[in-house]
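Marked as duplicate of an earlier ticket. Keeping the data here for the record.
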Amino acid sequence: MTEAVATKTAPAQHGLTAHSDGDWENRVPVQTRSERPTSTDVADFARVTGREAVWKYTPVADLDALLNGELDGSRLPVAVSEAAGVSSSWIPRDDARIGRAGIPEERGAAAAWSAFGEAHLISVASAEKVTAVVTRDALDAMPRAAHTIIEAAPQSEGLVILENTGPAQLSENVEIVVGDGAKLTVVSVQQWDDAAIHLASHYATVGRDATLTHIVVSLGGGIVRLNPSIHLDHEGATGTALGAYFADAGQHLEHQVYLDHDAPHTTSRVTYKGALQGEGAHTVWIGDVLIRNNATGTDSYEQNRNLVLSEGTRADSIPNLEIETGDIEGAGHASATGRFDDEHIFYLQSRGISEEEARRLVVRGFLIEVISQIGDEATEERLQAAVEAELAATSGAQATRGA
């Protein structure tokens, strides 16, 4: 005869009941950037609602084709300028060189990763500084996926400029691998047509005593969302992330920057500067810096500055700093959004400069501080002219309203 054994069940806590949306007890909100789940398979990410922390500032309703649709993953039409020590090739998606710098943290990047057929590989192997310009100006409005790898060999030095113009509906991943002792600058320029949509995730791994300077200039496009993640995962690595952006009426420009210090004696500097004008102009900057427990001797600082030129604009600026060790050289962050500095305007007017021209000079200097660090004179001059054109449009609109 088997004896029945009574079991005692603890009373349920009042109000603690599972919801109908799944595994409630095991669902814990992601608190920090380093805890985000990662995958190269879009099926591992739920459909985007716009309520997620990573998407809540983004106009997701306009991104359905890139987030949920079928993407064309064939080769993009690109042109690469010739430079000694720089090579360009296409490699299959199962190549071992793919996935070294990072993998997606959200659905948009995973959708692009799942869809691309071949990756565009740009290799820099010159001990003397070389410049390569990668031009993409022949796309169309078809939803596309792309994957690019920029690789700098140990002890090499190079500047790679990604030029984006024309129409586009593009979602892409860009991997940047900087070898030991190398010095690499990667510049991504967005001057798309007004209706273009561009989602991009950049991942970088920086070798021992190597330096990466990553520069973003976003001027054109209806929606641009470019998120660089720089992993300083070797001792002595340095990462500098710079950005300049100018949002017009109805334009959404978003940048989410991540610096991950995962080795001793690493250094990072982040400076993003933006200007906004026109009804509905919206910019988003989110800066995450993680200093891990093993990253002793870290020196880090991030800042974002926004200059508002007219009513009806919105600038979201969110700096985050996570420190897991107290043995660091220093860490800090700053964020500011405001209008013109009256003292600067007064100073210029006192020297015979009109108020309109004084305002243009202030904005020009504000953004060109970043643009002037690209290191290619032709690109710098062209982007300075583009900023001038934006400012001229501002002056013309103000004159029309005042007439």
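See parent ticket for discussion. The first strand starts at residue 79 and ends at 80.
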